[in-house]
């Protein structure tokens, strides 16, 4: 230990060092001083934009020209200026009456800087506030030509896209890995006008009629009195609503399944949810449901892992998306459609296609690929692009039209309405990220934040003063077509079709389609969420719904809650499971997956460099974890035992022998390590134990297999040992193809 005198001496000499760096009489700051080494005195040229960015000021983030002057914006020129372009001599000191005096009201630069800052925030989205976005390109396969005239689906046609992924319930700063539905909204900047496919990672919704949207959202959001819990459905108001409003049960079981906690945005399916109407060149129509299928397969987190991540890395999904894109592991999805005949009753195999709480099982109508999306560019400015992007279901290209789904119909109104407040006025489509790449020639004028200087005197039709322009498009001009669907003669009613009253059959279908381990997760999720409720009446009411879904599900959850399992109130539906709904059973590519490689600087580092290269070659990211930072064996250490946690990795590989001397471990960390070998760092043991609990592949070579013994996991499924790094990684890679070591989860339900 250092003596008090030594500490004082050290502090004293540090203070002297700082004093040396300060120049006491910098003009304008008498007495205080500023570091003399920090800033260059000569202006530097601005950093060059990345090649693919072009010049940000003259192009929108999607690459379309904005028409702005190249010299008009900040961080482009050499000199700092005011917003009016006056060069500034000083931005660090406000204008005062003497160095110690009060600040003068006339300091325009101070007021401009602070006022602008005061208004930097805009209202967050009322739902889907937490999100991340990326740019990419969509390429049509041409396979949809027979059913839609949409030009962006033609073979080989490339279209710029911007995608925003989101959670629904949480605020903008909430954690990524909460249990929730994920938004999956895509803006296609097509030549025929922008197409927004504003979907989710689940194919059904909580409500059948948009008029109930405020109800479900008020129930899911934090309680109004104490504003807790944040970004959670595990609370009384949510379960109160879904247990009373049983049409929500289908969406709810999706949330309770592993789909509610995706491993990555890159491993989520996307769904348009509603049924759309497609129209081809000849005017023939079909009904269709949109699906996004991820190239990497559909994978999820483990619930404990998701909870740990909420604390360890609340930005986990955002980071994963951007790390993958920057590493060149571009996320890819195929767009597909289920094509369904456009019959007068709008049903298919007895399924009401206007009911957004129903799916059409893929076994009944296969998803046919019609194009491919690759996300290949991260945003340049998060606010300008991810926050300001504004989606709207009514943004449709010719060839795609809406149906009478009453949820869809409400959404057609809601999105523009919300943007008017969120983006402060009616001109939000002029914000760079929202600008169409098709030529715009509207007669919308004026309004807050108008960016255009419209020429012409006659923004009305018909006119003679502007030569009658613009004219309207004819059949040959690929104009949007409102499909002339017959509307049945009917009375005005506030009512739903009788078919909308079936609230349980497809929930049972989903449950029966799950593998045993997925069922186990669903049971645990219900038990967790209902266990967080205070009101017993709510738990009992939800158990009634579970009884109508499946008696085993109900009995297991009831046992966990310590309540009796009720009898069903409706006959159990006789349904055929849909294997396509299960996430388990295939082997997938591992692009962008992370392998935590635990190393001991004093251990056997042979083969470490080659191992790292092998992981890279497999399209994965190796992260070296050591007791301290810096270089080990000439390789950079990315995580230390203090910063690493198992949840960040898809697999853990123990290289060499991570056995630091116990006295190198701070006392508070060492305490936790009593159950393993005293010589093994407890944080490494914890990493192995957690990775094992979360069914991740674990490997070791050389002396490090002692860690597996100490953690009590050697010889168990998915734990592999070899003599050398290459062999162990080969085995790990095979295990990772299945996403998790499923055998490790106990399944109480077959
Ligand atoms: Fe949304 N929804 N929604 N929604 N929604 C919004 O629009 C709304 C629904 C979805 O990343 C809001 O710009 C109503 C279904 C996504 O910017 C708002 C109803 C589906 C996003 C709104 C629904 C979605 C939103 C909030 C019931 C899946 C995020 C901010 C009729 C198919 C978009 C905004 C982004 C956002 C209203 C139901 C998906 C308030 C009224 C069903 C992915 O307009």
TrEMBL record:
Catalase core domain residues: 81-469
EC number(s) reported in the record: 1.11.1.6
Catalytic activity reported: 2 H2O2 = O2 + 2 H2O
Positions of crosslink type 3'-histidyl-3-tyrosine (His-Tyr): 392-415
UniProt GO cellular component terms: cytosol
The UniProt record lists the keyword Heme: yes
Family, similarity comment: Belongs to the catalase family. HPII subfamily.
Protein's job: Decomposes hydrogen peroxide into water and oxygen; serves to protect cells from the toxic effects of hydrogen peroxide.
Record's protein name: Catalase
Natural source organism: Dactylosporangium siamense
Source taxonomy: Bacteria, Bacillati, Actinomycetota, Actinomycetes, Micromonosporales
């Amino acid at each position: 230990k250092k003596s008090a005198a030594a500490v004082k001496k050290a502090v004293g000499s540090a203070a002297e060092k700082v004093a040396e760096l300060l120049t006491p009489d910098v003009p304008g700051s008498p007495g205080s001083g500023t570091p003399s080494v920090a800033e260059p005195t000569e202006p530097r040229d601005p950093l060059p934009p990345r090649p693919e960015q072009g010049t940000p000021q003259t192009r929108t983030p999607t690459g379309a020209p904005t028409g702005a002057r190249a010299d008009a914006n900040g961080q482009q020129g050499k000199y700092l200026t005011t917003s009016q372009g006056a060069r500034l001599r000083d931005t660090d000191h406000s204008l005062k009456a003497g160095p110690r005096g009060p600040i003068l009201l006339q300091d325009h630069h101070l007021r401009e800087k602070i006022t602008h800052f005061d208004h930097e925030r805009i209202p967050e989205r009322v739902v889907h506030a937490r999100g991340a976005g990326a740019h990419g390109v969509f390429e049509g396969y041409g396979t949809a030509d027979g059913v839609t005239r949409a030009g962006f689906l033609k073979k080989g046609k490339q279209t710029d896209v911007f995608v925003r992924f989101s959670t629904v319930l949480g605020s903008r700063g909430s954690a990524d890995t909460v249990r929730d539905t994920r938004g999956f909204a895509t803006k296609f900047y097509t030549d025929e006008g922008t197409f927004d496919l504003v979907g989710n990672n689940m194919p059904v919704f909580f409500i059948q009629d948009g008029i109930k949207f405020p109800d479900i959202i008020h129930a899911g959001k934090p309680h109004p009195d104490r504003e807790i819990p944040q970004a959670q459905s595990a609370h009384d108001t949510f379960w109160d609503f879904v247990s009373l409003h049983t049409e929500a049960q289908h969406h709810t079981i999706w949330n309770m399944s592993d789909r509610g906690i995706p491993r990555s945005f890159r491993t989520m399916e996307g769904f348009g949810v509603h049924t759309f109407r497609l129209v081809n060149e000849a005017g023939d129509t079909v009904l269709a449901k949109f699906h996004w299928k991820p190239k990497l397969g559909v994978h999820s987190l483990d619930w404990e892992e998701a909870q740990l991540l909420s604390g360890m890395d609340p930005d986990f999904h955002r980071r994963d998306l951007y790390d993958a894109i920057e590493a060149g592991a571009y996320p890819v999805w195929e767009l597909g459609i289920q094509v369904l005949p456009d019959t007068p009753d709008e049903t298919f195999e007895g399924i009401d296609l206007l009911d957004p709480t129903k799916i059409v099982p893929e076994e009944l109508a296969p998803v046919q690929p019609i194009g491919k999306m690759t996300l290949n560019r991260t945003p340049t400015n998060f606010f300008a692009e991810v926050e300001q992007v504004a989606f709207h279901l009514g943004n449709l290209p010719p060839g795609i039209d809406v149906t009478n789904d009453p949820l869809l119909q409400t959404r057609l109104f809601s999105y523009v309405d919300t943007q008017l407040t969120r983006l402060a006025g009616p001109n939000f489509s002029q914000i760079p990220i929202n600008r169409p790449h098709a030529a715009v020639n509207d007669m919308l004028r004026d309004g807050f934040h108008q960016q255009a200087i419209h020429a012409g005197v006659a923004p009305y039709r018909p006119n003679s003063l502007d030569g009658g322009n613009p004219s309207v498009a004819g059949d040959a001009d690929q104009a949007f077509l409102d499909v002339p669907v017959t509307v049945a003669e009917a009375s005005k009613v506030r009512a739903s079709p009788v078919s909308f009253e079936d609230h349980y059959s497809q929930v049972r279908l989903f449950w029966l389609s799950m593998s045993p381990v997925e069922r186990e997760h669903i049971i645990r999720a219900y038990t967790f969420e209902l266990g967080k409720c205070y009101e017993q009446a709510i738990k009992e009411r939800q158990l009634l719904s579970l009884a109508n879904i499946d008696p085993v599900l109900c009995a297991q959850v009831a046992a966990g809650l310590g309540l009796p399992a009720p009898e069903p109130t409706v006959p159990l539906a006789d349904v055929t499971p849909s294997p396509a709904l299960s996430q388990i059973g295939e082997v997938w590519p591992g692009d962008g997956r992370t392998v935590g490689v635990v190393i001991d600087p004093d251990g056997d580092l042979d083969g470490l460099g080659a191992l790292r290269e092998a992981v890279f070659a497999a399209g994965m990211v190796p992260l070296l974890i050591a007791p301290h930072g810096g270089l080990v064996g000439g390789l950079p250490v990315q995580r230390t035992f203090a910063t690493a946690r198992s949840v960040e990795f898809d697999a853990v590989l123990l290289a060499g022998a991570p056995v630091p001397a116990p006295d190198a471990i701070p006392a508070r960390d060492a305490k936790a390590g009593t159950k393993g070998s005293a010589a093994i760092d407890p944080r490494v043991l914890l990493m192995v134990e957690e990775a094992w609990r979360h069914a991740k592949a674990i490997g070791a070579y050389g002396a490090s297999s002692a860690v597996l013994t100490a953690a009590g996991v050697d010889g168990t499924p998915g734990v592999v040992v070899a003599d050398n790094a290459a062999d162990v990684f080969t085995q790990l890679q095979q295990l990772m193809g299945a996403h998790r070591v499923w055998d490790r989860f106990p399944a109480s339900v077959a």
